[in-house]
Sequence to fold (121 residues):
Amino acid sequence: MKTIALVAHDAKKADLLKWVSEHAEKLLGNDFYATGTTGKILSEVLPNIKCLKSGPLGGDQQLGALITEGKIDYLIFFWDPMTSQPHDVDVKALLRLSVLYDVPTACNRASAECLIKSISQ
Fold:
């Protein structure tokens, strides 16, 4: 069993929900954390998801703390590079921590497809 963090910017939430729905069988049996609204949306597919605060209200920082504590095995973060985010500093910090702590990270559908193959092996 792995612990997977799931995050999506507003413009990418529907994409992440679709991806999670397509891979629900492979994902079930793992533990999940998600930031605020993303977690609420995904809870219809992943019943055991733990929702943190919304990203702009500290959810990205909460996930970063979990990464530093070694509690996250994978990060799937469908982020929107075309839209300015009010909490861009937190987003960059979260991605920085995923690299620093060597957490496999997917930032789009293509990289998430590669990651799900490794998770389900």
About this structure: The two ends are 12 Å apart (CA to CA). The longest helix spans residues 88-100. Strands lie at 3-8, 31-34, 49-51, 74-78, 105-106.
